[in-house]
């Protein structure tokens, strides 16, 4: 298959995706669309893309495009994935895939019916550091894993939707998929218990959250996500015989294994564009004619959205008068 990408939006993540395709992928980006033709033209010029459109609809109608990458605000993912599928396009959509479990399920059903490839863009499960961490856990070197502790924070000043509940913002919906999908990838298991606390932000979304999960009946997971304060990005996986520390776990280039007896092991995978590994995987799936990734599959997406949706609903009950 000759992969021909069309890009939906000029979001800040888009240049990073386009760099990954242009530096390491086999496919060609042939068009970009924005709600503003000027913005689309500027990005097309900067990245040598032949066509720029001033509406998303024009891109969906471009018959030369066979894969659409969607990177809009979160609340619009469902609508644009649906349009892309109706126009016969394979779809890559940024995380979180949709706002609800039901929406995600219906899109996977539709893609299957139309024999089209569909995937949530989750770079973190394709990182070589995370793959190596999985090998170490599976080897049993750390003994049984009992606790995983994630911490992260992010800047909300660059766009208003990031704090808006209506537009799919808030700490949980903006950053929660990384840690949930990393644990699902590492342990290949469903979450068996969940809980969450939040602080109210100024625009409807949560400005900070603490999520606790249970996996495999013997692993506790805690994740702290804040837009209020700066927290160093870090995941620590604790086993009986030691721990693994992964700085900036969602885009990790390094990790350190520290055994209880004092021995250590450093893991290093430097790279310029961390989305490269995800792009390589997607292109392999497309070349093989798959309609679902064996790694970032329906269950990964649907369970993750379902967990976030349930936790958010429990907060709405708290807020009810
Ligand atoms: N995988 C990752 O590492 C990663 C990192 C960051 C973000 N993301 C995800 O990527 C997506 C984009 O995030 P971002 O932070 O890059 O976004 P951003 O820079 O704030 O841009 C969002 C884009 O959405 C488009 N859009 C469509 N409908 C809109 C509406 N009604 N109001 C406002 N904008 C609208 C706009 O594109 P036009 O103006 O060009 O039409 C806008 O540029 C999100 O889903 C986010 O979760 C993923």
CATH topology of the largest domain: Dihydrodipicolinate Reductase, domain 2
- Say how many strands there are: 14
Topology order in helix (H) and strand (E) letters = EHEHEHEHEHEHEHEEEEEEEHH
Please give the CATH architecture of the largest domain. 2-Layer Sandwich
Considering DSSP H and I runs of 4 or more, what fraction of the residues is helical? 25-40%
Low-confidence segments, given as residue ranges, are none
Question: If helices are DSSP runs of H or I spanning 4 or more residues, what is the number of helices?
Answer: 9
Overall domain count: 2
Distance between the termini: 55 Å
The helix-and-strand class reads alpha/beta
* Strand residue percentage: 25-35%
Major β-sheet annotation: 8 strands, mixed
Q: Which CATH first-tier class of the largest domain would you pick?
A: Alpha Beta
User: What order do the strands of the largest sheet run in, or round the barrel if closed?
Assistant: 8-9-10-7-11-12-13-14
Shape: globular
Task: Provide mean pLDDT, rounded.
Answer: 96
What small ligands are held by the chains? NADP nicotinamide-adenine-dinucleotide phosphate
């Amino acid at each position: 298959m000759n992969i021909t990408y069309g890009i939906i939006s000029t979001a800040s993540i888009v240049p990073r995706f386009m760099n990954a395709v242009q530096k390491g992928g086999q496919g060609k980006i042939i068009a970009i669309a924005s709600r503003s033709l000027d913005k689309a033209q500027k990005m097309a010029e900067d990245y040598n893309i032949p066509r720029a459109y001033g509406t998303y609809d024009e891109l969906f109608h471009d018959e030369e495009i066979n894969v659409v990458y969607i990177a809009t605000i979160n609340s619009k993912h469902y609508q644009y994935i649906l349009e892309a599928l109706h126009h016969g396009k394979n779809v890559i959509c940024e995380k979180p895939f949709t706002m609800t479990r039901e929406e995600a399920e219906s899109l996977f059903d539709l893609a299957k019916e139309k024999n089209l490839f569909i995937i949530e863009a989750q770079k973190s499960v394709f990182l070589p550091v995370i793959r190596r961490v999985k090998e170490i856990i599976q080897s049993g070197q750390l003994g049984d894993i009992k606790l995983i502790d994630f911490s992260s924070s992010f800047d909300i000043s660059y766009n208003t939707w990031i704090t808006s509940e209506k537009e799919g913002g808030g700490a949980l919906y903006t950053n929660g998929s990384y840690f949930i999908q990393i644990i699902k990838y590492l342990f290949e298991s469903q979450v068996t218990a969940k809980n969450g606390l939040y602080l109210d932000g100024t625009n409807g979304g949560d400005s900070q959250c603490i999520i606790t999960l249970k996996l495999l009946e013997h692993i506790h997971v805690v994740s702290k996500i804040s837009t209020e304060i700066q927290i160093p990005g870090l995941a620590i996986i604790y086993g009986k015989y030691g721990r693994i520390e992964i700085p900036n776990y969602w885009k990790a280039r390094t990790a350190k294994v520290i055994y209880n007896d004092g021995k250590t092991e450093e893991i290093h995978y430097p790279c310029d564009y961390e989305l490269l590994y995800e792009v390589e995987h997607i292109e392999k799936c497309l070349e093989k004619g798959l309609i679902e990734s064996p790694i970032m599959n329906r269950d990964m997406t649907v369970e993750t959205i379902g967990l976030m949706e349930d936790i958010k609903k429990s907060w709405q009950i708290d807020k009810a008068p």
